[in-house]
Amino acid sequence: MEKTIYQGKFTWLDVTQPHKIQLLDIASKFNLHAYTVQDCLEPDHLPKFEIDGLARFIIVRIYNPKDLETPHSVQDLTSKIALFYTDNYLITIHRLPQPYFEEIEKKYLAPGHTMTPCDVATHIIWHAVNSYLEPAQYLDDEVDKIESAIFARHSRGKFEEKLYHLRRMISVNKKLLILTESVIDEVYRDTKSNPFIQDLKDLNLKLHSNYEHIHEDVSNLLNIYISISAHKTNEVMKVLTIFSVFFMPLTFIVGIYGMNFKYMPELQLKWGYPASLLLMLVIIVVIYTWFKRKKWL
């Protein structure tokens, strides 16, 4: 679906849910390279900046997760927006509705404003980058909750899978912000007259730092959780080992006197049975005393 959002000093054409023939018509009308326009049909295309003749071609990804239990891929977490612009037109191509386009048109393209297509494209990139702010706060809160649960003595939850999915989401978002940073740098080099680009660079740097910090927290937390789980396993093995040490000599004594030999003098003695029990008790006391001195108990 094609829609002209703005018609004035330049034309802003917005295309939603495009198909191949429609894009080829746009390429012919605005003198764009057909292969460049067909990049808009690839749903998993990463952010990039290209120059197509007089036009600038930009792809950015806005955070817009699908309704899945554990979204963690680029397509699951984000949607793509493609932009073509010159001094005379701006073309935006995307599959999902972007309501903030109307907001930009009302706020910056109303009478009295002198916005260029590059300025509008910069604002669109800003909205795309800013969409990663809320998930960063959510991920930070989730990490704090898991950290509290891990160190709570009463907690018995298994957090490996959740920590993995959080780290995957953080890695995808951080990767997209890094690629978007290169797009912003190219736009900045292409036109340094737009003061809004510096704010955009600062926002992207801030979010990248936030995701870097959260990623480190998740990695450290995962290592701590694995260490705590290993420590708990070691504690269980320690208890089992202690029990086995106590019962091994007793089992040895029982095994000797359980052999069915005809001539075993102790079996005929009246004090043989109590003597065996006394020997077992002495062995237990000796082992317990030794463990206490070694501070193993």
From TrEMBL:
PANTHER family: CORA FAMILY METAL ION TRANSPORTER (EUROFUNG). It is found in: Cell membrane. One of its GO terms (molecular function) is cobalt ion transmembrane transporter activity. Mediates influx of magnesium ions. Alternates between open and closed states. Activated by low cytoplasmic Mg(2+) levels. Inactive when cytoplasmic Mg(2+) levels are high. The chain crosses the membrane at residues 239-259, 271-291. GO terms for cellular component: plasma membrane. It is a multi-pass membrane protein. The keyword Plastid does not apply. Keywords: Cell membrane, Ion transport, Magnesium, Membrane, Transmembrane, Transmembrane helix, Transport. Gene3D superfamilies: CorA soluble domain-like (3.30.460.20), Magnesium transport protein CorA, transmembrane region (1.20.58.340). InterPro entries: CorA_cytoplasmic_dom, CorA_TM1_TM2, MgTranspt_CorA/ZnTranspt_ZntB. SUPFAM superfamilies: CorA soluble domain-like, Magnesium transport protein CorA, transmembrane region. Its main location: membrane. Belongs to the CorA metal ion transporter (MIT) (TC 1.A.35) family. This is Mg2 transporter protein CorA family protein. It catalyses: Mg(2+)(in) = Mg(2+)(out).
